[in-house]
Amino acid sequence: MTGSQRSGDARELAEWDHRHVWHPFTPMQGWLEEEPLLIERGEGCFLIDVHGNRYLDGVSSLWVTVHGHRHPKMDAAIRAQLDRIAHTTFLGLSHPGAAELARRLIEMAPGELSRVFFSENGAAAVEVALKMAYGYWRNLGQERPRFVRLENAYHGDTIGAVSVGGIERFHETFRPLLFATEPLPSPYCYRCPLGKEMPGCDLACADALEEVLTRNEGAVAAIIVEPLVQGAAGILTSPDGHLKRLEQIARRHDVLLIVDEVATGFGRTGKMWACEHEGVEPDLLCAAKGITGGYLPLSATLATERIFEAFLAAPEEHKTLYHGHSYSANPLCCAAALANLDIFEDEDTLEGMQGKIVLLSQELAALQDHPHVGEVRQRGFMVGIEIVRDRDSQSSFDFSEQMGVEVVKEARRRGVIVRPLGDVIVLMPPLAISEAEISTLVRVVATSLDVVLAARG
After folding, report:
1. What is the pTM assigned to this prediction?
2. Which pLDDT tens digit goes with each residue over 412-421?
3. Domains of the chain as residue ranges with CATH
């Protein structure tokens, strides 16, 4: 294919996109006014568009890519599975890949998790966990319809997941459709209303759970949290001990603990699971995103035997978990997930990223005193850079200025793909990123900040 033919095809594809596609989390009026970036290929930590331009993938293609694009072991595993079967239902049947993957997930899981329920995305994994938690108590003869969530929480976009969410910009429109929940203060220490200097402020938001559970004694099925990092809220990092405190309070009140590791799992925080940092042992764990190394859609809800046994009964007792998906435990997805876990072991991925986490911190240090950077938040490879109008007053830019979007556009012009969450610039590179690529990523974002903010005067 010649360059002119490729350009012609690209123009036609862009036209089709503008005419027919509705993109997720995208203000479509603005999208239709700009030329879409059409990604055609990937190599390592780079994305390549239809014109051959290369972009460093600074957000792991929305937090999913682990070992890079086109990893030979991942590609080979999926091709090998295609020679056997692409899909078979998981309702009333099983297959070797699912059985092996379930065993390996349980072997690496924290605490006493022993059962795996497969679904297709993070929101589905959360929906399953909510149903398991409610169904558990109901099957024991207790009616516990309430859930406790954190403010600024994000657990997906299906109705149950939105019910336990707390980002007004995303969720407020759908409030009339949602079930009631009990909110806890978000550990957003940078903008804590109590003030950073107040003794015990760092854990006060966790201690609020005591009052909530006392007030709703016997009515709460579970508390659900994103462990250590609230991702979609702007990479809000919890203070040390916050997650452990929530677990301890939940245990005292005999309330289940659900950890949503969809974004934080599979090495993003420097350990396989974020809850491992504080020795937390959940009753239910939701996993997705990095589970297949960023190749195919798969998720899993891990549960303890205690929860599983509450659903064991004769059919006529109707204690079965009536939930499922057409593509649950899809064999291609399971093959990708198994290859992903093999690479973690064969390449010592977690050990290899420790030095890169330190380097990332060192590179980010240059931004700490930037006049328009309010805070740089980091847990492992999860980074949020909050940009502000004025550093001293912590005043924000007006939403209409779309400052985060403008910084991201500038970075793209310089060959780096990152995404904004409001005026928080998110960096979440693949775990396979090299040290040189880390330096490039931070340098380009820093330069883009300077260029955009200088242009705004």
Report:
1. 0.95
2. 999 999 999 9
3. 37-67+348-455 (3.90.1150.10), 75-346 (3.40.640.10)
